[in-house]
Design brief:
- The structure is a single chain.
- The chain is α/β, with parallel strands linked by helices.
- Helix 3 packs antiparallel against helix 4, helix 3 crosses helix 5 and helix 4 packs antiparallel against helix 5.
- The protein contains 11 helices and 11 strands.
- The protein is globular.
C-alpha cells in the first residue's frame, strides 16, 4: 500500500508535513510520528511540521510547529495527514509543493492530493503511519512510537470505540516494543485541572433532549466568551459529556462563534456521517462534524437527527 509513498520520500530532500486545523491527538501524533520516522531513517533530509497551535495537546513532545517561508515549498514534498477535506487543512501552502501525498482514515469526500491513501478500516491516522513504517521496513524510535501511540489512544477512545480491531492491537504492540513512558501519556491526557472539571459540570446542566432522545448542548457566542477558554475546548472537548447517557444513541454539541455554528455529532450506534455531509461537513461514520451558518440551520440539523431516530424507532 505504501510503496509509492516510500519512493517519493526517497526522491525529495525537503518534506513538509501538514494535518487538519485545531489538531487532536491523532493529527499531531501522526504528524510528529512521521517526522521522526523520516528523520530517523533518512537523517540527511529536511523535515518540517506546520500548522496551528497544539493547544491542549501541547504536552506532546515535538508539538511546537515550525515557522517556514513560502520559498521552502519550492521543490518540496508535502504530506497532509488525518484530514478528509481540503478546507480543513491547517496552512494551505501545501498547494505550493512539487508533490502532495494525503494519508487519512476518514470517510472519503474529495481528492485534493497527487497521491491519496484513504483507509477507513484504521482506527486512527497514527495506525496508518505505523503501518507505513512496518510495511516499508522503516525503523521506529521511542520518539516516533510515543507520538503514534498517543494518537492511537485518543482516536480509539483508549481502545474502547468500535473502530478498534485486532489490527489496532497489532500496531499498538509494535509501538510498545519501543521503550517510552505510557503512564506519562495517560497522566497528561486524562488528568484535569479543577477549571475543566467545573466546566464539564456546567455543560452537564446544559444538556437537552429532543422528542426522540437526541441529546444536545447549544452554546451561544456570549456564553462561549464567558467561559475563558478556547473554542476547541468547548466544541470538541465538551461533546463527550453526553457520551454515556443511558438511552441516548446520538448526541450533538453546537458552539456558536462570531460567524458560524460549529457542530460535533457522535453516536454509539448509528452512522450519522451523512447528516454532517448534508450540512457541508464530514468525518467518521459515528463521529463527525460540520459548520453551519446560524442557529436556525443548527436546529434544522438537529431535527434531521431527531427524524432519523424516529424512523429507527418505528
Amino acid at each position: 500500500m505504501f510503496e509509492q509513498v516510500l519512493t517519493e520520500i526517497k526522491n525529495y530532500e525537503k518534506i513538509i508535513i501538514h494535518r487538519h486545523s485545531s489538531p487532536d491527538g491523532d493529527a499531531l501524533g501522526s504528524q510528529i510520528g512521521l517526522k521522526h520516522i523520516i528523520k530517523d531513517n533518512f537523517p540527511a533530509k529536511t523535515v518540517y511540521v506546520v500548522g496551528d497551535d497544539a493547544k491542549r495537546y501541547s504536552f506532546m513532545d515535538g508539538s511546537t510547529m515550525d515557522e517556514i517561508a513560502d520559498s521552502e515549498y519550492e521543490g518540496a514534498l508535502a504530506f497532509i495527514l488525518d484530514c478528509g477535506s481540503s478546507s480543513l487543512v491547517s496552512d494551505d501552502r501545501y498547494k505550493k509543493a512539487a508533490k502532495v501525498i494525503r494519508i487519512d482514515h476518514h470517510i472519503y469526500c474529495e481528492n485534493f492530493a497527487d497521491i491519496e491513501i484513504v483507509d477507513t478500516s484504521y482506527e486512527s491516522c497514527c495506525g496508518l503511519i505505523t503501518e507505513l513504517a512496518l510495511e516499508c521496513g522503516l525503523a521506529l524510535s521511542p520518539e516516533s512510537a510515543k507520538a503514534l501511540y498517543t494518537g492511537m489512544v485518543t482516536d480509539s477512545g483508549r481502545f474502547r470505540y468500535d473502530s478498534t480491531t485486532s489490527n489496532t492491537f497489532r500496531l499498538a504492540s509494535a509501538l510498545m516494543a519501543q521503550k517510552f513512558d505510557v503512564n506519562s501519556i495517560y497522566s497528561q491526557l486524562y488528568a484535569d485541572d479543577f477549571f475543566f472539571v467545573r466546566l464539564r459540570a456546567q455543560f452537564v446542566l446544559k444538556i437537552q433532549f429532543t422528542e426522540y432522545n437526541v441529546a444536545y448542548i447549544y452554546t451561544t457566542k456570549e456564553e462561549l466568551a464567558s467561559y475563558n477558554t478556547d473554542t476547541f475546548t468547548i466544541s470538541r472537548g465538551m461533546v463527550g459529556t453526553m457520551s454515556d447517557l443511558r438511552g441516548v444513541d446520538i448526541w450533538v454539541n453546537f458552539t456558536e462563534t462570531e460567524d458560524k455554528v460549529l457542530v460535533e455529532i457522535r453516536s454509539s450506534k448509528y452512522t450519522v456521517q451523512p447528516v454532517a455531509v448534508k450540512y457541508g461537513g464530514g468525518g467518521h461514520a459515528k463521529a463527525c462534524g460540520a459548520a453551519v451558518k446560524d442557529r436556525a440551520e443548527a436546529m434544522a440539523l438537529l431535527e434531521d437527527l431527531n427524524a432519523f431516530i424516529k424512523g429507527e424507532a418505528q
